[in-house]
Amino acid sequence: MIEIKKSVCVWCKAECGVLVEVEDGYLKSVYPDPDWARAVYPKTIACPRLKAAKEYFYHPSRLNYPLKRDGERGSGKWVCISWEQALDEIASRTKALTEHYGSETIAWARGTGYRTDPYALARFFRTLGTTNMCTQGQICYLPRAKMADVLSGYFPHYSVRNETRCVVVIGTEPLVSRPITAAQIRNARAHGAKLIVIDPRRTPIAEEADLWLQLRPGTDAALLLGMLYVIISQELFNKEFVDKWCYGFNELKERVTEYPLERVAEITGVATELIASAAKLYATTSPACFVEGLGIEHNPNVAPALQARWALAALTSNIDIRGGDEQVGPHPQILTDSELEPKISFTPQQIEKQIGTSRFKLLSRRTLELINPHAVRVWGKPFAPHAAAHAPSVYRAMLSGEPYPVRALFCFAANPLITQANPKLVAKAIQSLDLVVVADIFPTPTTALADYVLPAASWLECPILWDFSGHSQYMAAGEAALPTFIQGEYEHKTDYDIYRELAMRLGKGQYWPWPNLEAYYDAQIKPLGLTHHEYVYQRRCELKSDSYRKYEEKGFATPTGKVELYSTVLEKLGYDPLPFYTEPPETIVSAPGLAQEYPFTLINGGRIREFFHSEWRQIDSVRQLHPNPKVQIHPITASKLRIGEGDWVWIETLRGRIKEQAEISDRVQPQVIHAEHGWWYPELPESQPPQQRVWESNVNVLLDDNPDVCNPVTGGWPLRTALCKLYKATSNDIGID
Ligand SMILES: Nc1nc2c(c(=O)[nH]1)N[C@H]1C(S)=C(S)[C@@H](COP(=O)(O)OP(=O)(O)OC[C@H]3O[C@@H](n4cnc5c(=O)[nH]c(N)nc54)[C@H](O)[C@@H]3O)O[C@H]1N2
Ligand SMILES: Nc1nc2c(c(=O)[nH]1)N[C@H]1C(S)=C(S)[C@@H](COP(=O)(O)OP(=O)(O)OC[C@H]3O[C@@H](n4cnc5c(=O)[nH]c(N)nc54)[C@H](O)[C@@H]3O)O[C@H]1N2
Ligand code: SF4
Ligand SMILES: [Mo]
Known about the structure:
Blueprint: E1 2-8, E2 17-23, E3 26-32, H1 48-51, H2 53-57, E4 67-69, E5 78-80, H3 83-101, E6 106-110, H4 118-128, E7 133-135, H5 142-152, E8 166-170, H6 174-177, H7 179-190, E9 194-198, H8 204-207, E10 211-213, H9 220-233, H10 239-245, E11 246-247, H11 249-256, H12 261-268, H13 272-284, E12 288-292, H14 294-297, H15 302-315, H16 337-340, H17 348-352, H18 365-379, H19 391-400, E13 408-412, H20 416-419, H21 423-431, E14 435-440, E15 452-455, E16 464-466, E17 474-478, E18 485-486, E19 490-491, H22 495-505, H23 517-524, H24 532-538, E20 541-543, H25 551-554, E21 563-564, H26 568-573, H27 592-597, E22 600-604, H28 620-623, E23 630-633, H29 635-640, E24 648-653, E25 656-664, E26 672-675, H30 690-695, E27 723-728
Parallel strand pairs: 6-7, 6-13, 8-9, 8-12, 9-10, 11-21, 13-14, 14-15, 22-26, 23-25
Antiparallel strand pairs: 1-2, 2-3, 4-5, 4-15, 16-17, 17-20, 18-19, 22-27, 23-26, 24-25, 24-27
Helix pairs in contact: 3-22, 4-22, 5-15, 9-12, 9-13, 9-15, 19-21
The structure holds ligand MGD (2 copies), iron/sulfur cluster and molybdenum atom (MO).
């Protein structure tokens, strides 16, 4: 029998509505859903991943049964075991460890959303009583979201509309990373919007811009402070809004006097006239909104850059207006996990034990305590309870036993051996543990170090309820299209089922009354008067709200009820309440001696259309489109170093070297190079030493995660500025080709 199921693809951040054709439980095809309501849905997506859905789902290397290590860690030797055995053994080993060391001895790692239901994941570890979550959110999305919550009472997740008159794209290339946002920007452009792009590379979106500011990597905070200088000194701000709705204008005004344009131009390398034009264009063209990305979040100046970004939006009264930085608010009728079960919160002792948050405080529960009463006042419910341990500190604790022993890691939907900075330290830390459990869809360098590898279901097998942790304009839902289990062929489990079945074995079954993920979603949307299945068929994808200037009634959801130019929350946490600029730890300015040997600035990670982080390298039809990692090098630099197009080159920093293939391009400046991230070689056997398979083209080998160089507020590690040198690989060290 052929059925058409309505699903949501989460293989990248477009999160497209799709229809899945299924015959007797087998996947026939997947294609875009023509009725998908997301505003500017590109109806004909030429998406290589979607095209390869069958190849992915039935791939011969896919994990189909639980595996138990049968040799040294990393030896590539495994035995297939039953789910019963795997879950029983994991539960009893977990119990033994928590009884001996306390539950905080369990650390957990997760990657980016939307994969593995974030609420269910958090519920599992909350019931276990451990706060030691390592999340990529620390350098992706959480700084943006939390800083917006702290300063303005809500995080608008890309609110470009046709009415938007000016878009500031900073540190992101949405044409690759967020196709829906890119389409929204182009629609707004077609309706007359202006576009300002701030990026050290001439990206395709920069080529479409009215103004492109090619700044020196890592200097965004200074650039935005320069724009504030212009807006304040030329009185381009909205006085009425500032008087009534902004807190700390005079303090900001004074701070900004430290950033006259000549100084900012010197720091950023952007001409004074261009900064002034960008400031004027932004301040005089309303509604205006920001589309910010990793150029900010992977930047050592992440916190003050975000403060300056919010000050710009506030001074120009672009907050919570249609087409500006909209404040959609959490969905009033979708229950968060804590609303469903308020009893299982962490105890103060467990919170106290979270590693790293007494030093890096933005993502701590203390911050939530400071802002949640105001969220309740305005939104009727607290902010999503994102609170993350400091991942580099947790990995160090595994090695040192300080501040206490961390002896186990549960890793769900993450591949830290490739995606975490300083991954050789991560590998050493994982190697040292007593218990390592990794749930994934494919074998990865991280599963290679596990004691138990659990075969997770993909989105094609899971129901989905998607509201982007309450921040998206959209709500969307999809149904499970394929079975998780076919006798004799595969035995996958949804992450939800894994959490639940482990929790039952650990005596925490009372917190898991819903037998499966769909039932859990039914409970979350119960106030809507629909089941999840009905939601998929009756609503599917919808805008959450379009009301504006809600602050006029209840104020902003901040302690002062105003947008905080001077942050009372940061002040209480012991940080500078105002934005400022500091030179990143490793640049030609801060480390001129080092720069003599390592003269280039390395940026990396600009998204690759075909891949999602470390995924898809084993899917042939996709890999063929982009077989090797590429490093962008300016023609002048390449010719000086006698590097030709397609040559393999070594990129070396103080921490190590990796090899990528040269792409000679004037999209970067001569002193800057851009390397790709996420690379490893699944075609090489897991049993061989990791040198070539895991490290050889892994850009994170080059990057630092030492807590001393992490941003003091967010804890983020500096991914986008490092000094490096570059030289051609000789024929002897040319491996992968
Ligand atoms: N140098 C450098 N490093 C970076 C970045 C960069 O730009 N430069 N970007 C950073 C950013 S922004 C992010 S978000 C991170 C991403 O970091 P990760 O999330 O660790 O990256 P992925 O490679 O997507 O790894 C996710 C793994 O989860 C598996 N998976 C997918 N869906 C599911 C599921 O539903 N359940 C389970 N159990 N497994 C699943 C995939 O097969 C894959 O192996 O990388 C960060 N690392
Ligand atoms: N196809 C695909 N799509 C993806 C992903 C993927 O892996 N593949 N990953 C997803 C994830 S998890 C995320 S977080 C998003 C991220 O997507 P984006 O936020 O768009 O981030 P990137 O593409 O990594 O980097 C954007 C730009 O930052 C610039 N940049 C580097 N340093 C600086 C700097 O100091 N300042 C400024 N202003 N810019 C700088 C780079 O030149 C690059 O063009 O993409 C998502 N979408
Ligand atoms: S992988 Fe393709 S189909 Fe899936 S969300 Fe991304 S763009 Fe859409
Ligand atoms: Mo990300």
